[in-house]
Design a protein that fits this description.
Blueprint (H helix, E strand, L loop, with lengths): L9 E6 L2 E11 L3 E3 L2 E3 L7 E6 L5 E5 L4 E2 L2
């Protein structure tokens, strides 16, 4: 089971560009459309929308891909 995160949490993840950090802006607990694709989410396996600290980019990731950042 992965850690649960909440809106406002500061998290990091690995991307093609290296380590990225950002702030969670939404928590999805039901399937949702994101950038033209259907993303799967549930209460047991939520997905998170995260706004990058350095750009305006918004990413969606599952909990196991994320880690808390101080």
């Amino acid at each position: 089971m992965s850690a649960n995160f909440a809106v406002g949490d500061h998290v990091g993840w690995n991307s093609e560009a290296g380590q990225v950090t950002g702030t969670i802006t939404k928590v999805h607990t039901q399937d949702f459309d994101y950038k033209g694709h259907r993303r799967r989410a549930s209460k047991d396996e939520p997905q998170y929308e995260i706004k990058s600290d350095k750009t305006d980019h918004v990413a969606a990731h599952k909990g196991p891909a994320l880690h808390r950042v101080d």
